[in-house]
Amino acid sequence: MSEVALAPARVLAESPAPPRIPGRPLPRASYVDPGEFTADLETVFYPGWLFAGHSCEVAEPGQYLTFSLGTESVIVARDEAGVLRAHHNVCRHRGSRIATADRGTARALVCPYHQWVYGLDGQLRSARLMGDCFAVERYALAPAAVREVAGLVFVCFDADAPSFDPAADALQPQLHRHGLDRAKVVARHSYTVQANWKTVIENNRECYHCRGNHPEFLQSNFDLGSHGEVRANDAFERTLAEAYARWDALGLAPEEVSFPDGAWFRVSRLPLKAGYVTESPDGRPLAPTMGTLPDSDVGSLRIIGLPNLWAHANRDYAMTTRVTPESAGVTRVDVSFLVDRDAVEGVDYEPEQVAAVWRATSEQDWELCENNYAGIRSRAYFPGPLSTVTENSVEAFLAWFDSRRRTAAGSSPSR
């Protein structure tokens, strides 16, 4: 019987999902226990769509990027025909990782161990010293699911990837005019945060903490408008209604799509404060207008992709944040900044200025998350009540997480 390359089968977690009291954070074990961390990877991360990178990083044939999480790694590459491919980063010989860099350009993918050579399409091209009867066609790299939408690239490690179409239908109409597919990354900041990944996501899902901690963010942004926010503010509601009327007239198709039917994605265009046309210290643009946007107020397009992405797309630049859990108590976070690919550094933009607001805001968040996690690790920790005024989005995230864990546990075969 001929041998074929198959994507690895999903490994179901042994660890049961912890009980959760609605309206409260998770029990301590969910944040600190290594077994719970492994279960998170198996039931929440590997089976779902994850943000891997930007289309502009793999725009040309031969360009590739890698995305690794837990035991898994994929190579995302643009092949000679311009097709975006994803391959499990596992050599078909003895399993070595093939690509070890975060990104690069190559005419072929060469395993560093024994120099097996794979095409960008994943097909094995040559395997030295394997004998005349060795059939290279049987040993293609195992494919992984990959999709790109409006300049963002997503992958799924599972052999049975869920449909991506609902997310594409929500993101494409609102994000495509920002031109992320014809952008370039001008600054990257990577952080090792001493906190559980859920602590990092929970922090992002509320602005209860903003007034006391994010002065740069609040120069341009309201601390309102989050999913589940119930604070009443007539001035903000008028600003939002007026902004939607302008954006409709500009053909920006503004629509809030927030985790429909328990889905993993949200997209929403929100207004900035008066006098601000972008998230900058003084409200003025930091780079040329991107994509096909007008040279006017377009607010800030906010995107969430649970469990590992949030992004803000402004008129002049975009920021993406990718969350990659490394252990129960360590999370890698990569923050990238993009501008139009034709913009000239030193003339049209300065990278440190483009990154200024979100670098400050991000680093403030990591300090908050680490301090929060230090308390969660204590034996004195007990989940307190979430605010029903301003933390409903945290509750929604935890309900989504709980559902993913329990759905996966329910699909596990009896042992």
Write the layout of secondary structure elements.
Blueprint (H helix, E strand, L loop, with lengths): L27 H5 L1 H12 L4 E5 L8 E7 L2 E7 L5 E5 L14 E3 L3 E2 L6 E2 L5 E3 L18 E5 L2 E5 L8 H11 L7 E11 L3 H8 L5 H4 L1 H6 L13 H16 L7 E2 L6 E6 L29 E6 L3 E5 L4 E10 L2 E11 L10 H4 L1 H21 L15 H19 L5
Antiparallel strand pairs: 1-10, 2-3, 2-5, 3-4, 6-7, 7-8, 9-10, 11-17, 12-13, 13-14, 14-15, 15-16, 16-17
Helix pairs in contact: 2-10, 4-9
How would you characterize the overall build of this protein?
The chain has 415 residues and is of the alpha+beta class. It has helices at 28-32, 34-45, 165-175, 197-204, 210-213, 215-220, 234-249, 351-354, 356-376, 392-410, and strands at residues 50-54, 63-69, 72-78, 84-88, 103-105, 109-110, 117-118, 124-126, 145-149, 152-156, 183-193, 257-258, 265-270, 300-305, 309-313, 318-327, 330-340. It starts with 27 loop residues before the first helix and ends in a 5-residue tail after the last helix. Residues 1-15 have low confidence and may be disordered.
